């Protein structure tokens, strides 16, 4: 096991232990993304790490949880946000995007469900009231048009996108730790998770529960549609549903309801 693999293993296992849930080793194996490591190998490695550093994962050395401080955005946003003609600029930037990049492929609905329209992004910015010191993380960012418009209109500190398109998997995997560091700095998170697989929503829930920075999140679909007031899930204890927000989208002729949650 490499140091990076050990760090990934610890970070994947920790949320289960915090929520006192049985470890789903099948999910852990998939997310470690090392085909040569079996469930038994991961169990034994975790035992070895506990023998070395103690049984409590929270007391492991900082290198297992180092997800901040080293990362800085490579491009600095302009000091003053652009307030006029933003829609024109955004549309001009993405005019050259081919239909292949935005078309939903047969049998792969999670690859592309469409983008939030420019008017919807403007409405979202009014609701979130994103300031110059905020960092936006767009999980499932598609072609990145939302990130560009938010950067132009709000002058936020940084806008970070994460996408799972097949042609980007190799690059995303090699940049796994830098992306996680970037997301851990996000105070505002946008997630268009309407067609996310169950495992992706589980990973999203774990990230939002573990984040010490995120204070606002906008979801395309509720984490738990059948939520009750007596719910004891960690996500429901940490996050409050503030209000639904109707946003103009490109995949439907009517607006779509998103959900604003705050800590």
Q: Any idea how many domains?
A: 2
State Rg. Answer: 19 Å
Mean pLDDT: 74
| Coarse shape | globular
CATH superfamily of the largest domain: Vaccinia Virus protein VP39
CATH topology of the largest domain: Rossmann fold
Question: How much of the residues is beta strand, in percent?
Answer: 5-15%
**Most strands sheet:** 6 strands, mixed
**CATH class descriptor name of the largest domain:** Alpha Beta
Q: Class by helix and strand content?
A: alpha/beta
- Cα distance spanning the termini: 37 Å
Number of helices: 11
* Uncertain parts: 68-83
Spatial strand arrangement across the major sheet: 2-1-3-4-6-5
Task: State the total count of DSSP E strands.
Answer: 6
Name the helix and strand elements from N-terminus to C-terminus, one letter apiece.
HHHHHHEHEHHEHEHEE
- The CATH architecture category of the largest domain equals 3-Layer(aba) Sandwich
Helicity, as a percent range = 25-40%
Protein name: DOT1 domain-containing protein
Organism: Phytophthora sojae (strain P6497)
Pfam families: DOT1
Domain DOT1: 114-173
